[in-house]
Specification:
The chain is of the alpha+beta class and 186 residues long. The protein has helices at 17-33, 70-79, 116-130, 132-148, 153-176, 180-183; strands at residues 39-43, 57-63, 82-84, 93-98, 106-112. It has a five-stranded mixed sheet, sandwiched between helices. It is globular.
Length: 186
Amino acid sequence: MVGLERGTVELVAYDEGWRRAFETEAERLRDAVGERVATIEHVGSTAIEGMVAKPIVDVLLVTDTLDGDEAWWIDRLEASGYAFRPNDPVSDRLFFAKGPEDDRTHYVSVTERGSDTHREQLLFRDYLRANPAKADEYAQLKRELAADYPDDRSAYTERKSRFVRSVLQSAREEAESPNEANTREP
């Protein structure tokens, strides 16, 4: 159901079990971090119904502030079976992986409410959920890239970035445009 070797790219068909795996892990994480987490979100491709994905569940832990609390989060999540990845290129999150390197099952990002990571993860997920044609386009791109880069996760991710940026731009424009229902005369 979930698990993939670090650094490899293997896509599988959508699995309803991913939602259950997220819910189970979210409960474990809530027990581990308590009230310091404001929300726990299922993000990434496993959160988009029908999407092909690497079988690794992405979890977003949103907190009111990380300032000065990094060591606390690292201690709590490492005690819960996660490995902290300190060289993560995304500056506004703490990134963790669960499972041995040959069978990663979950990724957890800890970020502040309203951070770029928080906004972008939800925008991307929600836009693809609401736009099946764009989700299909993304799935096709992912299949092509997985065939080209099965053992090079960084190249696979890099080649997806232009598409991801375009989806985020469309999602931002859609979110900023006036809602037609709100502009009609009564």
